[in-house]
Write a structure and sequence with these properties.
Length: 94
């Protein structure tokens, strides 16, 4: 039997067409990723305040310095992404 003969259109795994992604789904993903970014940036901010750069191994120091320089921008971009995602979700639900 071929795949076409054994496949029921109601079952998963068939060659049926996929549904297109909606704006609400994209907005939800955007808001979720932004929220994860804000949480990560906030935890990173706490870690950067607790850790002393001169007390960690030399291989980690460049990464700490990079995050110290870039964490504010990361937090702002994540917050904007969250707000835009939530605003789009609100607009699509009306």
């Amino acid at each position: 039997m071929s795949h076409d003969e054994t496949c029921d259109d109601a079952t998963a795994g068939c060659d049926a067409g996929m549904e297109p992604t909606t704006l609400a789904q994209l907005a939800g993903t955007m808001a979720g990723l932004g929220a994860v970014g804000v949480a990560t940036g906030a935890l990173n901010l706490v870690a950067l305040r607790v850790v002393r750069v001169d007390e960690v191994p030399g291989c980690v120091q460049p990464r700490i310095r990079w995050w110290s320089a870039h964490n504010p921008a990361f937090l702002v971009i994540s917050a904007v992404l969250t707000v835009v995602g939530l605003a789009t979700l609100l607009a699509t639900s009306l």
